Amino acid sequence: METHRYIENRFDYLFLKGFDVSTDFRQWWNPQKFDWTYSKYLPRYWSHNFEQWWDPDRYNWQSSSTLIRYCRQYFHIWWDPEKFDWKPRSTRFLMNYCKEHFDTWWDPESFPWETNVIYLIKDFNDKFETWWDEKKFPWGTKFLFGNMSAEEILTQYCVDYFPIWYCADHFQLTARLCELLRAHCGDFKDTWAQDYLLYKLAK
Q1: Are 43 and 16 in contact (CB under 8 A)?
Q2: Are strands 4-7 and 12-15 parallel, antiparallel or unpaired?
Q3: What is this structure's pTM?
Q4: Are strands 142-143 and 148-149 parallel, antiparallel or unpaired?
Q5: What pLDDT digit, counting tens, does each position of 41-57 carry?
């Protein structure tokens, strides 16, 4: 049986009989013998051979982020919402590298709201009406981004949709939110002014 191993610090895949597979893809490629555990190195080093090696049933989908980064030009071929690794990192890559395909990949049931909603708010505010879901939105969740809550980021980046998210039952005023409303939502002052006053009086 032909054996092979992966040498981590050299970033190349070597067959023990001495053939360096990084030289010529066509000479060594054999999908039957390839160890698909190392799928991520195919898009990383042989993206231009994508149509030769791509196999959705064999590809290790835990390496979805590498597929996105190096083979996004083939998105229409490899995309499969059922197989895609919807973990936060992979989803972030999807949002960063495949933004133009949002309407294709967006899936509110699979999306990791707790960790990635911040990127929806900041980078996809123009798609607010598509992704907004009051029940799935992680109200009160704090992010390292300025140590801000989801509501605080919403107040800064989705002002145009104020009438939708401000009326949500879960939106609760805080001192910081009051400051942000004054700074960013002046056009809607008639809506929040009374709540603002009541909050201040209660304090």
Answers
A1: no
A2: antiparallel
A3: 0.84
A4: antiparallel
A5: 899 989 999 999 999 99
